[in-house]
Amino acid sequence: MRVIRVQKEDFDAAAEAGALAEGRRDVGALISFVGLCRDEGGRLAALEIEHYPGMAEAEIARVVASAEARWPLLGVVVIHRYGAIAPGERIVLVATAAAHRAEAFDAAQMLMDYLKTQAPFWKRARGTDGSTGDWIDAKPSDEDRAARWREPPRA
Amino acid sequence: MKAVYFAWVRERIGKNEEVIEPPPEVATVADLIAWLSGRGEGYANAFAKPNGIRAAIDRAHAGPNVGIAGAREIAFFPPMTGG
């Protein structure tokens, strides 16, 4: 099972992730990661997320395909929102199902690390002071995290 | 070909998208960035740091040395900040 969605609307993280194990007897591990909008100490009124329609879905599909090629996954869900997102709201869901926890954990981490650096989304931080806010800069640490997965797998 | 712009690249250029017709000697993504930079202050500002710009050809990431021949849609945008 593979679900990839880019949408403005909120999602039900528990239901979306739970669907990966629904009616199956072979899933031994189900990992669900939800990225939330934080208020940055009260300074952030909302995130505005812009995306490249068409490419966002295509790029997520490429990232999911590389995770599926690397680990024996039994299911993957990736949902990423765009538009205005208030503190406390969900931004992104990555869920992975596998027979064992190691591959489910690793695949979920790799998917998130790649999504952050490869999927065409851009965040702007609208301030509680009424400011439109600046575009958020990409963090070198995110690149470093993504680069870990490019190293050849240990023999 | 169609050029599309996102985030602050879009804001600095002042357009979401446009049809462009670069001359034949503009062969790569890097060439196209240099050519677009010469089209006005907004473009020069958007492409002031070419290393800080990402590009995609027909909705797949493309590095500076990738050829643009046959491309239908070329996108320029800042490094991604999703997730």
Fold and architecture overview:
- The complex is a heterodimer of chains A (155) and B (83).
- Chain A has a single domain, classed as Molybdopterin biosynthesis MoaE subunit (Aldehyde Oxidoreductase, domain 3, Alpha-Beta Complex), CATH 3.90.1170.40.
- Chain A is globular and about 50 Å long.
- Chain A has 4 helices and 7 strands.
- Chain A is of the alpha+beta class.
- The mean pLDDT of chain B is 97.
- Chain B has 83 residues and is of the alpha+beta class.
- Helices cover 27% and strands 23% of the residues of chain B.
- Chain B is globular, with a radius of gyration of 12 Å.
- A 5-stranded mixed beta sheet of chain B has the order 2-1-5-3-4.
- Chains A and B meet through strand 3, helix 2, helix 3 and strand 7 of A and loops of B.
Order of helices and strands of chain A: EHEEHEEEHEH
CATH-derived topology of chain A: Aldehyde Oxidoreductase, domain 3
How would a crystallographer describe the biggest sheet of chain B?
5 strands, mixed
H/E element sequence of chain B: EHEHHEEE
Question: Major β-sheet of chain A, in short?
Answer: 4 strands, mixed
Strand order, largest beta sheet of chain A: 1-4-6-2
Count of DSSP-assigned helices of chain B: 3
